[in-house]
User: Fold these one by one.
Assistant:
Number 1:
Amino acid sequence: MTSSVDIEKRPDGKRPGWRERARLSTERAVGPPDMEGLSNTLKRGALYSAAAMVFGQVISFVQTLVLAHLLTPTDLGLFVAGTLLSGFLISVSEGGLRGALIQRENDVARAADTVFWATAGTGVLLALVAVGTAPIVGMIADFGPELTGTVVAIAAANAGTMILHALTNVPDGLMQRQFNFRRRLIVDPARMLVFAVVSITFAAMGYGAWAQVIGNYAAMFTWVVLSWWFSGWWPGFAKPSYKLWREMAKFAFPLLLEGIVDKIRTSAESALIARGLSADPLGNYRYGQRLSLIPGNAVVQIGSYVLFPAFSRLASEPDRLRFTGWTPLRWLATLAAVLFFVFPVVFLVMVSLKTQSDIATGGFFPTELFWQNYSDAFASVAVDLYLRNSALAAVIGAAITLLLAVPATHAMIRF
């Protein structure tokens, strides 16, 4: 695929000026994707995505463990509470328009400029909303005067990430549409690596919860720069259209509702823990959640990045879709079953049956089955209380999901 540095010289041998190079690069970025050898492209994309995912998840796993050693659960809890609203608003700022751009077949240049200005404007507006509502986030957390002040400051300081995130929508969408795997191979691992290095460095320097705020900004800047560089797209060479925005918004509306439902569920869980308990339990909850979501995120990242643009192109060719799609789906389903359902359960069972010496020496299987761990756990901590809390959180989460998913399903059927 083409980046902004791959533009050839003009017929007269002179290198074109910056604007002409940008125009040529943008034309290629919004051009039709190469559909020849699509099956091989899907296999290659899945392989690249899997390799990048393994690298990224190793970084994420190590970073989580190192930060758990350098930071207290309170530090992480403050960061989680401070970013509750911004994490929710980011899903709103994108509005599903990136997905609409990826599947678009015609007038892609104008669609790209339309999505860029719509999402950038929404990002700026929501950043201002985040700054103005930061005190409300502090009131929800209510960790005490000093800690609540830190939550408010983090909520306000993190508002700028919504603008940076909005700037990635079009470059990322066009790369995915073109089956440009540089985002998976370079951009995402680089972003994760920068966040890990910067946050760990500042955590070691004693910045506490602010280490993750600084790391988050460094990662976002890396994401923006690399996405724009590798996509080769620049705004201003096509005219945005309100009509196009309305057309794409109809497609994006169910995606927006799905994102809102998911963010409400996760934000409500964190808000309930923050309000009902304290920063420490919220931090411990987020540590455990990060580790538990690694397998599931891996499957989603591999499948969605490769299959969504391919199926979008083949939607009007059912015979070719059936031939091209089933083999990758079978491999993806097998990978999902192993990574998401089987391995985490087996791993937890193995760890729960280990002795302290087995855990210290490592290894997947215990040298002996130490069943006493279960009786010790019930005797030393209030496991029954934890189980009731988990059941209550699951019921509330399911109720919220159903309440919001039913209207979303209606919207998907209607539009």
Number 2:
Amino acid sequence: MNMGQYQEEFLLSLLGTLCLGIVAGWALPSLPFMPLLIVFIGLMIWSAWSVSRASRQVWPAFLLTAFFLGLLRMHASLMLPYDDISHFAGQELKVEGRIAEEPQAKERSDGSISVRYCLQAEKIKPSKDEVQPASGRLYVYTHISKDEAVIMPQIGDKLTAHGSLRLPHGFHNPGQINTELLLCSQGITATLMAGKGGVIAKALPEKDISAWTSLLRHLSGVREHYLSSMQAVMPKEDAAAIFAMLFGGYQGLKPELLEAFTSTGIVHILSVSGSHISLLAAVMAWLGSFLRLPGMARAALVISTIAIYSLLAGMVPPVIRSAIMGGLAFLALALDREKEARRLLILTGLFMLTVSPLLVFHISFQLSFAATAGLLYVAPVVREWLQAHRVSFFLAGGLSITFAAQEIGRAHV
């Protein structure tokens, strides 16, 4: 193999080997870190030597380096700081922090409301100890009776919760999402069940609200406005289900419907993932080509559409990741750089998994990468086949995008 050949295959093999290393690091967490680091440094030296000599050993050297990189990054991700909230699991305590994401509320069968807060821990106070600093994120669960009138706190507000702290757990039913891995990949290391009156919120003073927090609050208000507008013209349950599939969130969903999605293992459909953004970007790129827009105009159409949708979806971390991945890939595609778009997608995946290896277990990242890859690899083949069978360009483009997106969704269900 000559240097510079098979670049796409080489990058794909690196991505696959990195994922194998990450999975191996999760399955073998007791492996000693320092010997792994020494081996990794040796492999890096071997890789550099192979490149300088244009040796045929370049490929295996880089594959082994990627594997051990995945091992090391996974081990580093599993090493939590000494003050992480998870180290206090099994205790009754009081935790203080700031609300990191929009609170999620859903109605229960008895008419009460179950609320989930994502809390960035700052302080904790075990029942018999002094106040201590804490770090990490946790989910705080509480419920509100149907007769109780409560104003929901906003992102950035301070929250004090008292209850039993536990480590995340799941039931591992076949076909369902692994809850521990999912929460771990989101940075959630503990959960707290707060009893009645166990949660006290304090509004953040206006002068302390950052620009980012202000933006997130404004976007939350926009989402609430759109949901209310939909509920005004259709049954509330239908509006909530459609809104959840379009923009994510469980607000207003009937408990029976949410339970059905959960028990069948497709609850991720109610969360924004790369499949939403990739499909939307692909449609905009195809529309730009159909309208014969210049390359830069098509690129502007794709990027602006992704940006607007990301804002409406709340700019939560999974949305931001999906927007970056889909935006870069479809920007190259809109500029008629199909090969570069594929390579850019792979490089983006390599970078994201190196920075945050736990993403390999996150359903949102899996859908983001798989959906974008399907629309870059599968859709062009289907479109060419349809056009070869005398299907019009307009119809072939739409059918190919639909087919690629449908196959990706079927594979994850």
